[in-house]
Design a protein that fits this description.
Structural class: mainly alpha
Radius of gyration: 13 Å
Number of domains: 1
Shape: globular
Largest sheet: none
Order of helices and strands: HHHHH
Distance between the termini: 31 Å
Strand content: under 5%
Oligomer: single chain
Length: 87
């Protein structure tokens, strides 16, 4: 199973977390100007390949119960901030 398949499999069991991340992605993209939005694919549309391994780690911890849903959302939001250049 590749990274995206594993993330997708875990996401299916945690749709509420996915939906929250999707909303946060929309909020982060809203802060970008038009040129920045054109240059960066939305996080939720798999535009973040450079951080895939880190993202998978967060989803795995959530799936094992080693991370709460709010903490997983916080960690994923931190990765999104890195992706969008906010950190």
């Amino acid at each position: 199973m590749n990274v995206w398949e594993e993330i997708s499999s875990i996401v299916k069991r945690n749709l509420d977390v996915f939906y929250e991340i999707e909303a946060k992605d929309t909020g982060m993209r809203f802060k970008l100007n038009d040129d920045e939005r054109r240059q960066k694919a939305p996080w939720i549309m798999m535009g973040r390949e450079k951080l895939a391994i880190e993202e998978l780690g967060v989803w795995r911890k959530l799936d094992r119960g080693d991370l709460s849903k709010p903490d997983a959302i916080s960690e994923l939001q931190s990765l999104m901030a890195t992706y969008y250049g906010e950190s």
